[in-house]
Design goal:
alpha/beta; Metallo-beta-lactamase, Chain A; about 35% helix; 8 helices; five-stranded mixed sheet
């Protein structure tokens, strides 16, 4: 799917996840930003479908790239990150009504994953914490299921009103959508435990038992999430 690039602000903006590696799409973003002041480029995490346009925009406009320290380390040699976020870092952007952006470390999908919370109106730019359609793959060892679920719960506890995902449409029922994600993972986990008790030990076998609603072409990705669930269950002493 495509990746949403967000411009947070008005005349002065933060560009979040300039993702496209394609020259024509980079040129389109350049035109959109032509008359705006770019404060910085922010990356939610390291995956190529979120960062592949960052170097171009940095070179084109002479602005800095910021990311979590883990992301900056892992992108070395691919994206030139200039500075690392500070946990709970806040940035005020001028204009009416004004913007107050807060960086929140939300690991689970990736170790250095962050969300951006606009504190004045409750908007949460989620990166790959949630998606506008479908669910998020948790792929060990970069992905970690227990940490991911904790990140979801922490974001749900905020006064969040709308979710702006990297993939898919904006979602207004923010807390309800996060609860759907939590419920979905717990239902999957319950069914994985049941399959385990029936003697299924390998992710491929468990996927065939549990992920009957998922097309076979997606079973490879589903196996990665099953592995993440199994690691969580082992850590908890449940299998």
């Amino acid at each position: 799917t495509h990746t949403n690039c967000y411009l947070a602000g008005g005349d002065e903006v933060i560009v979040i996840d300039p993702a496209s590696p394609y020259e024509e799409e980079q040129a389109l973003l350049d035109r959109v930003l032509e008359k705006r002041k770019i404060r910085e480029i922010w990356l939610t995490h390291l995956h190529p479908d979120h960062v592949s346009g960052a170097n171009h925009l940095k070179k084109e406009r002479g602005v800095r790239i910021a990311a979590h320290a883990i992301t900056a380390r892992d992108l070395r040699g691919f994206v030139d990150v200039d500075r690392a976020f500070v946990e709970n870092e806040r940035l005020e952007l001028a204009g009416e009504p004004g913007w107050s952006l807060r960086i929140l470390h939300t690991p689970g999908h990736a170790r250095g994953h962050v969300c951006v919370f606009e504190e004045k109106n409750g908007s949460l730019i989620t990166g790959d914490l949630v998606a506008g359609a479908g669910t998020i793959v948790i792929d060990p060892p970069e992905g970690h299921m227990a940490t991911y679920l904790d990140s979801l719960r922490r974001m749900q506890a905020l006064p969040v009103t709308a979710l702006f995902p990297a993939h898919g449409p904006v979602m207004a029922n923010a807390k309800g959508k996060i609860q759907e994600y939590l419920d979905h993972r717990m239902e999957r986990e319950k069914n994985i435990v049941a399959a385990w008790k029936r003697g299924h030990r390998e992710p491929a076998s468990i996927v065939k038992e549990v992920y009957t609603d998922v097309p076979p072409a997606m079973h490879g990705l589903a196996q990665r999430s099953v592995l993440a669930h199994l690691e969580k269950l082992r850590d908890e002493g449940r299998i």
